[in-house]
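Section 3.1: Structural characterization of target chains.
Under the original work plan, the team committed to producing a structural model for every single-chain target entering the pipeline before any wet-lab resources were allocated. The record below documents one such target. The sequence was received from the expression subgroup and is listed exactly as submitted; it comprises 96 residues.
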Amino acid sequence: MLVLITYDVNTETSAGKRRLRKVAKVCVNYGQRVQNSVFECVMDAALCCTVKHKLKQIIDPQKDSLRFYYLGNNYKTKVEHFGAKPSFDVQDPLIV
């Protein structure tokens, strides 16, 4: 299923900046960054629980926000893109 992970980490302190880097590092391991704090991740329910657990251990729930949007397996009909940064299929092979 496609899961959209979004976050907003308070970076007013150095601890917040560290949390932001840690959250981004976890997300980049599981999906493609589509905007600064937005990742598209294709994962099953078990992997999603693992990622969610990792991220919840990093954030400060009093200062930060973490959101998961579950778009399911038929996500291609639910996502539209306009503007810069061309859209791509997150399940296509990644050539580096």
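The radius of gyration is 14 Å.
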